[in-house]
Amino acid sequence: MGKGIKLPNHIAIIMDGNGRWARRKGFLRIKGHEEGVKSVREITTECAKMHIEQLTLYAFSNENWKRSQVEVGFLMKMLKKYLIEERKTIEENNIILKTIGRIEALPEDVQEELTISIKESQGNTGMILCLALNYGGRTEIVDAARRLVEDTERGTITHQAVNEVLFKSYLYTSEMSDPDLLIRTGGEMRVSNFLLWEISYAELWFTPVYWPEFRKKQLEEALKGYAKRERRFGGLIT
């Protein structure tokens, strides 16, 4: 990357195309997921080196449970393995690990490893790596609305106090900045129920490259494209 290039503070990625990459290569779908982990490692490391403040990865949606039991079981085992094996990468790159989603529905052994990894990274001071697990944008908004209603009924807040700032404080991402750049790999051009509230003003970057082939070169292309855009947030450039 060239010096002085404008970088996003927060990058969010929909990591799509693992299965299609595997089929194209004549492999089983699980091979695509295994290769996808290598992309996660490289992109995470590169973002940390570039001092990106936060990287949020759509790792497992709450709709992914609809896949076959074999594939879901493999994904959970792979997630557990990733959490254990990547602790060294997280520590070496001074990364803080966080997560969003309905984590309580994940297998207990995965939850345990996730808790360990998060706790071990708490003392780090670098980039935040946020894994969206059992996550859905609509579910996040519904969960926030439910908690808000509960607080209203308890009298903790009044309905007159409800505004966008207050509502955001009830989201999973309440302590995080909104993404500046949303990247989706795999050729699809939709946001697929990911960070629906948070990406209101994010720049969108779609690429036909499947996630297992999305590496440093493709990341830099997305960042160069982002740097050329003018972000007006509904206003005008003066």
What does this structure look like?
- The structure is a single chain.
- The protein has one domain: Decaprenyl diphosphate synthase-like (Undecaprenyl pyrophosphate synthetase, 3-Layer(aba) Sandwich), CATH 3.40.1180.
- It is globular.
- The protein has 238 residues and is α/β, with parallel strands linked by helices.
- Helix 5 links the parallel strand 3 and strand 4.
- Strands 3-4-2-1-5-6 form a six-stranded parallel sheet, sandwiched between helices.
Task: Give the number of DSSP strands.
Answer: 6
Q: What's the CATH class label?
A: Alpha Beta
For the biggest sheet, the summary is: 6 strands, parallel
* Straight-line distance between termini: 28 Å
Strand and helix order: EHHEHHEHEHHEEH
CATH architecture: 3-Layer(aba) Sandwich
Count of individual domains: 1
Mean pLDDT reading:
95
Percent of sequence in beta strands: 5-15%
Write down the Rg: 18 Å
Helix content: 40-55%
